Structures are given as structure tokens and as C-alpha cells.
Amino acid sequence: MKTFVTSDLHFFHKNIIQYAKRPFNSVEEMNSTIVNNWNSTISDEDHVYLLGDVSFGNSHQTNLILEELNGKIHLILGNHDLKKKQFFRNHGRITSVEDYAEIEVGGVFVILFHYPIQEWNGSHYGSVHLHGHRHSKTPCEYSNNLRRADVGVDAWNFYPVEIEKVLETAIKNAQ
User: Fold this and answer.
1) How far apart are CA 13 and CA 5, in angstroms?
2) pLDDT digits over 137-160, tens only?
3) pTM of this prediction?
4) Rounded-to-integer distance, Cα 90 and Cα 64, Å
5) Residue 161 is part of which domain span?
């Protein structure tokens, strides 16, 4: 079992292709690429912290695409998930739904939140903040030399990423 993080999938969101300059010609191509990348990386035993902005599709579309994804999904709600909060809480593919989470990985205290924040619990004591929302092209594009990284698909070639790799990236960036 491994632990992965990702964010800002934006399934069925046509405008995100242009807004975030995603390299897709259609929503179908984007959805298919993200699902294929996810499933080629994630096993059914793996845990995935999805830091928000799952889908712009209706409940039926979102249900179908969630059913395709491997792993145990822990959703941290993003700004585009709030209207579907109850849907996600009741969905069998979603293991947990939170606004914010704190976990420990290999002795590192990790803050998971959709939005990048300037200070977080333990930020002055070595903790790391992982977020989405920015649609950064690199994980530390907007990190300002803090122990913070964007886990959104735009920064990781549309793949979920092992949490240890992201933590290593964020820690190196802050040195």
C-alpha cells in the first residue's frame, strides 16, 4: 500500500483546458488521460488524498468517472466541490470527505488543504503544506521558498504522485 496525492482533476470542465493551458483537444481526451494515468499509477490498495476540484459534471457523470478510479480516495474539498459535498460524503468510492486534514508521513507533519496558505500548523517547526487550486505548472512555482507544494495534476503531468516524492520536492525547495 502506498499513499498518493493529487488535486484539480476538473473532470468535464471544458474551460479549464484553455484557462490552465492543458494540452488536450477535448474534455473527453482530458478525462480519459487523467483516468488512465490515475489507474496506471494507483492500485486498489493504495490511498489517494485528492485535494479538491473533482468534477464539473452532473452527479451521474461524476459517479461514472469515480467508479473508474482505483484506490481508496480521501477527498479534501475544493472550491468547486462545495455544492456536491453531500454527494461525495454518500459516494461509496470516497473513503473520507474533509475540508482540511493533518497527517504524518515518515515523521513529517503534513497539512492537506485545497488552497495554498502562507502559514499553517507547524510551519515554523518543519511541517509541510500540500495544496491544489493554483494550477501551477511546477510543484513549487508559487511556494515562495516555503515547505509547500502544489499537488495539482497541472504540476505533475496529469498523474497522481507518491506523497514522499512531493514532500522531498517541497523540503528541497525551502532550503
Assistant:
1) 21
2) 888 877 777 899 999 999 999 999
3) 0.96
4) 14
5) 3-173
Degrees, nearest 5: CA angle 51-5-100: 35
Domain count, the chain: 1
Q: Could you tell me which residues come within 8 angstroms of residue 1 by beta carbon, excluding any fewer than 6 positions away? A: 45, 46, 47
What's the CA gap between 128 and 81, in Å, rounded? 24
CATH number of the structural domain spanning residue 159: 3.60.21.10
Mean pLDDT of the region 57-70: 96
Amino acid 145: pLDDT: 76
Contact, 111 vs 5, CB < 8 A?
no
- Cell numbers 479538491 correspond to 52
Burial of 164 (0-12, 13-18, 19+ CB in 10 A): middle
Interatomic CA distance for residues 107 and 139, integer angstroms:
22
User: Has residue 49 got a pLDDT over 80?
Assistant: yes
